Recover the amino acids of this structure.
């Protein structure tokens, strides 16, 4: 009797985990959403590390996460001045093409890491924002466990999600909810047209469940992550564990 | 009110070298028409019969023991500026009267200090304690007060009585052209009153209309305005301290209290402040002004208090109280019409207000230029398609963001752009590019997309570019272009996702 009840509840949990709730935002690619138990949690800190030489891929992956999380609200982007010299300046038309509206963006170019962290604290206290994205270069000492814990608490207080974009850094311990290691994936050969941006993503820390590694792409038209198309126009067979997509 | 510092250059020298005072007579010499002449003499030198304009050689012949300094007009001017700063505490409208005078518009300010007589006594008393030889007078017009300060020290003229006060003054008090003054004297007209007694038509035909205008003004008929050093603020509140204050613990609440009374006045007039300035008057005369700017009109006390707190804590050179501040003034330098708004239940409006306040705070802390918003710009040259302006500035634009890519296609504009574009090398067999000293093999490429430069804007380079998208074996995507010059040059302009 009890075991039946438990299994019923477990079934219910498994089902209810998938639909999007106010606090969880689905990324759109089901295997990832399942690993995250329903999606990325708002009001938490998520860390995106760039593999060496793949800083642009990490930036665009973070932009994709923000576009999902912000839900039409304004986004606060804190950039480090030096990053624009190293990796290129922020190019709004490119972000518009990517699917993140630059007119909903407030951009802060900070000179020092202390400024970045202080500004992030202030921005996360502002409940009107949809998301805050914080660019940090390298592995500075000031960004320790305490600093990341502070960001986690600030995120949770007003339920404003924060993305810590780590460029040119080796993954390290932090209080983040999830940690991603991102690099670009080559698009399939012998296709006539260029495919959508492709990512090779490793989820190396996940407080909600298991970790994993996937290759998937971002759909600029739909504004969500999706399964990578093998070739342009080819019909991809739906895996058995995947819900049928609305055409 | 006019102030005249009759011995400004020598007073300045004595302030810097106190040991010289009393020892030797001090004069300042300046080269006039190839001869060194005295431009200022101190008290001791004046008593020995030296006068301004005397050739230095004559002065040396008269007085053997004489200390001579070279005139420094710039230092004199900056000292006059400092004195004007100090006078700011009495009225916001202070004008310079170079080389050695000041005008203070004390209309509506005198009663704050117990009347004109007390104000005059206080200003002159304090300056004289600081070893400045100063003369002052109060009158209704600029010309009259200028003459009276130099010839009748401490004179306070009631409104409309200028003619009586000025008439007995010598004709030199008008500071006309020496030729005209000389002509007046030769005609036997030694005082302003005698000159004014002549027919107006006579004076105009002999000395010109300008002379008559100056005389009229001196006699209190009509007058030119003074041009203040700083624009007087529309709204201001000040707090005087009996004892100079030193600590932020006192300064912060004082600013809050000033903001509260300022906001009350602004609310009655239906305006909000866009630019606020706090002036800290140190007891030794120095002034520190700190301004904050906001993106929209504000008159909320906590907001203003918070902005100043941000500014004070983020100052690169902290507020140095010295011996303490004896006056703190808060002024709204720029105000805008502001409607009273009932607090909205609309979350979007609330969110926008919160973000505006966040932007204001960060702009105050890091500088306006660091907090930006992006606006589309009507151009097809990739680096000119957007404009980054301070987020506090409202920016109206008719242009909208344009997608270049077709539906279902990958982005055709990069996420990050290199400014300036970075020079690369292209290798054809096998296809690859060298960027930042590393070779990347190109597996796929697409293009060209030709972008011609805007020839109607002369300052941009005139060479058209052929843009290509390329992907290396790791999946990294580049945006490169070939400048259509001879020989063609390759550049990496941006990177894609």
């Amino acid at each position: 009797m009890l075991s039946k009840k438990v299994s019923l509840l477990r079934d219910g949990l498994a089902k209810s985990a998938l639909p999007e709730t106010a606090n969880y935002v689905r990324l759109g690619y089901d295997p990832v959403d399942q690993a995250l138990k329903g999606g990325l949690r708002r009001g938490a800190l998520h860390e995106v590390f760039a593999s060496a030489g793949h800083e642009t891929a990490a930036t665009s992956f973070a932009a994709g996460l923000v576009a999902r999380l912000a839900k039409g609200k304004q986004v606060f982007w804190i950039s480090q001045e030096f990053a624009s010299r190293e990796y290129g300046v922020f190019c709004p038309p490119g972000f518009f093409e990517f699917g993140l509206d630059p007119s909903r963006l407030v951009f802060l170019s900070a000179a020092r890491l202390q400024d970045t962290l202080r500004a992030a604290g202030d921005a996360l206290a502002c409940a009107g924002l949809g998301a805050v994205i914080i660019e940090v270069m390298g592995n500075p000492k000031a960004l320790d466990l305490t600093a990341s814990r502070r960001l986690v608490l600030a995120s949770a207080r007003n339920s404003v999600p924060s993305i810590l974009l780590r460029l040119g850094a080796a993954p390290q311990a932090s209080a983040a909810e999830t940690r991603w290691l991102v690099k670009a994936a080559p698009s399939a050969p012998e296709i006539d047209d260029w495919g959508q941006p492709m990512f090779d993503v490793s989820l190396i820390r996940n407080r909600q469940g298991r970790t994993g590694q996937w290759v998937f792409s971002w759909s600029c038209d739909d504004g969500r992550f999706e399964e990578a198309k093998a070739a342009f126009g080819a019909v991809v067979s739906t895996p058995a564990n995947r819900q049928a997509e609305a055409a | 009110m006019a102030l005249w510092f009759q011995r400004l250059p020598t007073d300045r020298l004595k302030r810097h070298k106190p040991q010289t005072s009393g020892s030797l007579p001090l004069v300042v010499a300046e080269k006039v028409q190839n001869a060194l002449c005295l431009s200022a003499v101190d008290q001791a030198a004046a008593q020995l019969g030296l006068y301004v304009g005397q050739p230095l050689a004559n002065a040396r012949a008269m007085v053997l023991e004489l200390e001579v300094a070279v005139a420094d007009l710039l230092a004199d001017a900056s000292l006059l500026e400092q004195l004007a700063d100090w006078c700011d505490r009495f009225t916001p409208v202070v004008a310079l009267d170079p080389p050695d005078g000041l005008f203070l518009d004390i209309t509506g300010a005198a009663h704050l200090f117990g009347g004109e007589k007390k104000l005059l006594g206080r200003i002159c008393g304090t300056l004289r304690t600081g070893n400045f030889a100063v003369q002052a007078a109060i009158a209704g017009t600029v010309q009259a007060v200028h003459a009276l300060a130099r010839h009748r020290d401490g004179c306070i003229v009631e409104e409309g009585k200028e003619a009586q006060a000025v008439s007995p003054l010598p004709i030199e008090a008008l500071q006309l052209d020496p030729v005209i003054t000389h002509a007046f004297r030769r005609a036997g007209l030694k005082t302003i009153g005698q000159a004014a007694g002549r027919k107006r038509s006579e004076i105009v035909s002999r000395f010109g209309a300008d002379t008559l205008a100056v005389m009229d003004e001196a006699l209190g008929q009509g007058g030119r305005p003074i041009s203040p050093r700083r624009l007087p603020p529309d709204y201001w509140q000040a707090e005087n301290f009996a004892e100079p204050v030193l600590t932020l613990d006192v300064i912060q609440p004082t600013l809050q209290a000033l903001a509260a009374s300022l906001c009350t006045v602004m609310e009655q007039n239906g305006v909000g402040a866009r630019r606020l300035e706090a002036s800290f008057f140190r007891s030794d005369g120095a002034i520190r002004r700190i301004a904050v700017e906001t993106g929209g009109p504000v008159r909320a006390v906590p907001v203003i208090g918070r902005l100043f707190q941000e500014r004070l804590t983020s100052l690169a050179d902290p507020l140095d109280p010295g011996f303490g501040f004896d006056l703190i003034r808060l002024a709204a330098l720029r105000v805008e019409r502001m409607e009273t708004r009932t607090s909205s239940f609309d979350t979007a409006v609330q969110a926008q207000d919160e973000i505006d306040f966040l932007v204001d705070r960060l702009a105050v802390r890091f500088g306006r230029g660091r907090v930006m918003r992006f606006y589309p710009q009507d151009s097809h040259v990739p680096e000119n398609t957007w404009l980054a302006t301070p987020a506090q500035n409202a920016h109206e634009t008719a242009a909208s963001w344009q997608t270049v890519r077709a539906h279902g296609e990958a982005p055709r504009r990069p996420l990050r752009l290199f400014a300036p574009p970075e020079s690369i090398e292209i290798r054809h067999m096998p296809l690859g590019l060298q960027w930042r000293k590393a070779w990347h093999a190109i597996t796929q490429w697409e293009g060209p997309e030709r972008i011609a430069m805007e020839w109607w804007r002369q300052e941009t380079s005139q060479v058209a570019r052929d843009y290509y998208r390329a992907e290396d074996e790791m999946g990294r995507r580049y945006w490169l272009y070939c400048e259509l010059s001879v020989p063609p040059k390759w550049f990496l302009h941006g990177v894609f996702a």
